[in-house]
Sequence to fold (697 residues):
Amino acid sequence: MSETKLSKNPENSGDPRAAATASGNGAAAQAATPAVDPRLLVREEGLAGYWTDFKRKMRTGELGSVPVVVGLILIWAIFQFQDSAFLSAENLSNLSVYIVGTGLISVGIVFVLLLGEIDLSVGSVSGLASAVFAVLAVNNGMNEWLAVVLALLTGAAVGAFHGYFFARIGVPAFVVTLAGLLAWNGLMLKVLGTDGTINLDREGLVGTLSNHYFTDIAVAYGTAAVAVGVFFAVQFAGARRRAAAGIPARPLSEIIVRTAVLALLAFGAAHMLNQYRGMPLALLIFLVVLVALDFVLKRTSYGRKVFALGGNTEAARRAGINVELVRISVFSVAGTMAAFGGLMIASRILAANQGAGSGNLLMEAIAAAVIGGTSLFGGRGSVWSALLGMLVIGSIANGMALLGIAAAIQYMITGAVLLAAVVIDSVSRRTQRSAGRS
Amino acid sequence: MSATPVLALRGISKRFGAVQALTDVDLEVHAGEVVALVGDNGAGKSTLVKTIAGVGPADEGVFEWQGRAVEVNRPHDAQELGIATVYQDLALCDNLDVVGNLFLGREILRSGVLDEIEMERRARELLDTLSIRIPSVRIPVASLSGGQRQVVAIARSMLGEPRLVILDEPTAALGVEQTAQVLDLVERLRERGLAVILISHNMADVKAVADKVAVLRLGRNNGVFDVASTSQEEIISAITGATENAVTRRKARTAGSRP
Fold:
């Protein structure tokens, strides 16, 4: 970042005392003149400025979700080229329901990854939650809402349990949750008992979650309209307040462009969903959870604490943050989201069975978060990576199935995509570090 | 310079098991004064700073704050008094932007939600009053240079409106230009009437910004020098122990001044 480097006053290289006073006077003189300091990274207004800023971010390793979006477009193009049924309304609608269960688990993983930790137990916890729900609601006839709440609380308690051992006792999270992976799977088998499989009612509360579609086209379009409207209002009000406070604000043109891009995506998706069976309830739930948790991470002091812990735990501690409490709560969030995801998966297959939460569910949930752009090294990421990553993984699985390619190949390709994502993460982290040393 | 020192330590002693880390150490810092605390490795600089910051309270001695004897047993006590400490390892979160770091742990909220706009406005105000130039307050601290990171860390300590700032090796591992930036900032802190304790191994830095130099040797005071009228050699010999008292110092000086 040579152009942003501080001034190289010739006198700075001489005797430090002289340099200090000389440049001190220089700084005072600069402060007196209101002109914009040429060394500051002031973004030009308008699209040209946006492009410069984008290039700077790419160069300094702040890649964000750019690689995954490019990858997703590539994957969709390839599959569409091979089989025109891939981008059909029915297929995409099914894909959007398929990704919800694992996606919700992946959202919890994002929280844990932001701390720079890992939770290997989420698959087993999701299975345990579905078993708890099925036994309570189906076998014991408990009210379904109550059973759902108890299943979610089971997840929260299990997560807090892991968090306690990690934060208070100091056992590595990897080991605690590996123990959990085995133990909770065992508990699930115990809870299910001799039945092995408990079928759920398609018309019941949980059955509805994945099988209900809002056939009224107004729901999908309405959701898109609300999303676009709220986005614009928030951006516009923010820019107004910033301008009033005298700090750089997004120009209106840029807000309009961003809103237009979102509107294109949202209404395009709504139109596509309406071609088939309308807005799936499952997708709506997923989107609401994503928006809510994104708000928690980006706009609350709790979220700021999570990011701070992922960046530098010691700094967070010195800033007065209760490190243990935040850690325990984050693992509890991961457990809750795993339970939620487990219920959604049970809802999709209309059963809680002994195989729930096993197989490659755990790996998919972690891979989705990482592929979506959340760093394994902590401190960088967003809950939207769960959506983007699951779209990539789901598209690969779905496309391969359409083309009749064996699962063996599918696993290998998903593995390669995950490796690529981690490589991008590592390289961008290194670029960011070296850019900082310039 | 005020008559009553902001901070006065009298007869501070600290023992770790069998090791007497500090013995009967005195230190005075006035408002608008930069006192460099120097000494060889193991001389007790860090121990003394920890005593002031409340991290490791002294076993014996009097801690006077603005003329009043006070007890400082926890970091919180020191912060309450108005003592800010900027540690060598900076304590910044690389992934957060400058605003996020400045307000970490004391975020400004607006109906329960982070008020980014107010925080950014105040951050700019603070950086402007300290004449700190950084590329943008909205880029992650990881992409700043070492000197810029150090000034951000110092600016962060200023948010609590302290009376005394302790800087632990602020220029270690910085280049010439970046060192000058940090020294500029130290001078601005002094202009604003703050008391500054600067721990440094770099004699050029000490000579550049400090008003007084307090030398520690083997856990004891080994002289307080006025920077303007003392040569670098004299300070160094006080650190290394080549001279032990005023008489030998004087002898050395008169011997040196003879042609």
Q: What stands out?
A: The longest helix of chain B spans residues 176-191. The mean pLDDT of chain B is 84. The two ends of chain B are 38 Å apart (CA to CA). Chain B has nine helices and twelve strands.
